[in-house]
Design a protein that fits this description.
The protein is of the alpha/beta class. It has five helices and eight strands. The strands form two sheets. A six-stranded mixed sheet has the order 1-8-7-3-4-5, covered by helices on one side.
Length: about 220
């Protein structure tokens, strides 16, 4: 009888859930974990956009998107059907930065950007694994298609989800001009590059971002 009553009391306490003090401690712990993990990334983004704490006032070489646009707006998915947007965000373990080459038709200018993204990725050296590469291409010439496994095997091909069309951010129109989109670990398209930019331009931006950020 005594054991039954003790069990009931124990069950009641469990059903009551955490006390207000326990809930507050839990929220504080969650906030601290978030701040430790993503605080540097948030600060890095603010510094990059504004030039804060940068005596030279230099911020970026690429074209900034203002405001940033969520990569989910592109409605892209991998060959497996997995949505691209699922790879980013605070709930993802070790999310990467990503360079995405976009073009309706992959002619010479498009292939120059494919090559540029590849060489910049390699030039990052020990940080190369923190940046992934992908391409969204409407049509690819037979010659490039044949060379793809040899020259761009590390560049993933993405496609729009069935029945959807990508909502490209302002200033990015793949139908008229190929671009490279830079996506941060939060899943924000934050910057884009074109034929007017050099590999040095992209490399400087990425090195600065990766140095400031501990995420991705």
């Amino acid at each position: 009888m005594t054991m039954t009553m003790a069990n009931r009391i124990s069950d009641q306490k469990q059903n009551e859930g955490p006390t207000p003090e326990q809930a507050r401690r839990g929220r504080r712990t969650a906030f601290l974990l978030f701040a430790l993990g993503f605080g540097p990334m948030i600060v890095a983004t603010i510094m990059f956009y504004t030039g804060w704490l940068n005596p030279a006032g230099h911020t970026n070489n690429g074209v900034l998107l203002k405001p940033v646009a969520p990569v989910s707006a592109l409605n892209l998915e991998a060959s497996t059907g997995a949505p691209l947007a699922e790879r980013f965000g605070p709930e993802v373990v070790d999310p990467n930065w990503m360079m995405i080459v976009v073009a309706a038709e992959c002619g010479s200018q498009c292939e120059e950007l494919l090559y540029l993204a590849r060489q910049v990725n390699i030039a990052l050296g020990k940080n190369a694994h923190r940046v992934s590469r992908a391409a969204v291409l409407g049509s690819v010439p037979a010659d490039l298609q044949a060379r793809w496994p040899r020259e761009y095997s590390s560049m993933e091909r993405l496609v729009p989800a069935a029945g959807s069309q990508p909502a490209w951010p302002s200033g990015v129109e793949p139908a008229t001009e190929p671009r490279i989109l830079l996506v941060d670990p939060f899943g924000n398209m934050m910057m884009h590059y074109g034929s007017e930019h050099s590999g040095k331009d992209m490399l400087e931006d990425l090195k600065r971002l990766l140095k400031l950020s501990q995420i991705g």
